[in-house]
Write a structure and sequence with these properties.
- By secondary structure, this protein is α+β, with helices and mostly antiparallel strands.
- It is built from 5 helices and 7 strands; from the N terminus they run H-E-E-E-E-E-E-E-H-H-H-H.
- It has a domain of 82 residues: SH3 type barrels.
- Helix content is 26%, strand content 22%.
- The strands form 2 sheets. It has a 5-stranded antiparallel β-sheet with strand order 6-5-4-1-7, with no helix packed on it. Strands 2-3 form a two-stranded antiparallel sheet.
- Strand 4 and strand 5 form a beta hairpin.
- The longest helix has 10 residues.
Length: 168
């Protein structure tokens, strides 16, 4: 009878999930919340062993030797250092993580989870707002000159065929 209650307690207690191991790739600041401007809650030093407790967008909640808090996803390598096997090698090739350092980075992470991405819908009005803010190459050049910015060779996207991209 006691075994049944123990099994039920384990099944219905979400806080018993085991943390994933990781290693700090660089020095960084631990944050109280998953935001770059959040208050500092500790320090993370390169090579520190961490327990990854949670993931939210481009942030990981970790327990480190000098505190706990949120740190940027790219500051931590997931998995235990020094533990490697043949299966892991095959998985790293399949995931694109094979090669020097085995680090894969991504840009444009804005905290969208899988459910939000699945439920995303095209919004023509929002696209029109974005297009209304576009400018042409000549206007961009004038803006740069006005700000005393050094000229650089840039490839501009062609202006839309309507008058929206003509610089108004």
């Amino acid at each position: 009878m006691k075994l049944r209650y123990l099994v039920m307690a384990l099944l219905f207690t979400p806080c018993l999930a085991l943390a994933e191991a990781g290693t700090a790739l660089k020095d960084d600041t631990l944050r109280a919340e998953p935001y770059a401007d959040a208050k500092s809650s500790g320090l993370l030093k390169r090579s520190d062993k961490v327990d990854i407790l949670e993931k939210k967008g481009a942030w990981l909640k970790v327990k480190a030797p000098k505190g706990s808090g949120w740190v940027r996803l790219l500051s931590v390598k997931r998995g235990e250092a020094g533990k490697s096997n043949e299966a892991a090698g095959v998985l790293s090739v399949a995931s694109g993580r094979a090669g020097t350092g085995q680090v894969v980075s991504t840009t444009g992470v804005r905290g969208l989870n899988e459910e939000e991405l699945k439920n995303a819908k095209f919004d023509e009005e929002e696209v029109k707002k974005l297009e209304a803010n576009s400018i042409g190459a000549e206007q961009a050049k004038k803006f740069a000159e006005a700000g005393n910015l050094k000229p650089q060779k840039l490839a501009y996207l062609p202006a839309p065929k309507s008058d929206k991209g003509s610089g108004k």
